[in-house]
Write a structure and sequence with these properties.
mainly alpha; two-stranded antiparallel sheet; 3 helices; about 100 residues
């Protein structure tokens, strides 16, 4: 999964998740107190998002892309318009584009 990992983007996403958790995860007091009380620590939510949600999303995208490529190759091969050697070349060319997923 390293090929589809963009560390700067992931860090920015985690910052956004933490910021949203700070904003929407506060206990609202009607007495006007200034110190925010959080339902759960925003840094913990960002860490869980980075450790669990993002890797699962990458795996899903990777395997979805792989299945799309395999189905496309199967349809081309099934149509009889391609030989086995051409199919392998076709697969190799698509594998070079796997960083898109």
């Amino acid at each position: 999964m390293r090929i589809i990992t963009f560390e700067k983007v992931e860090a920015k996403v985690q910052e956004r998740v933490e910021k949203k958790a700070r904003t929407y995860g506060q206990e609202v007091d009607t007495d006007g107190s200034c110190s925010p009380q959080f339902k759960i620590e925003p840094a913990l939510i960002a860490k869980l998002y980075g450790d669990w949600v993002m890797p699962l999303t990458k795996k899903r995208k990777f395997f979805t892309g792989l299945i799309d490529i395999i189905m496309m190759c199967f349809n081309v091969y099934k149509a009889g318009s391609i030989q086995v050697a051409e199919l392998l070349v076709f697969l190799w060319s698509k594998a070079d584009q796997s960083h898109v997923y």
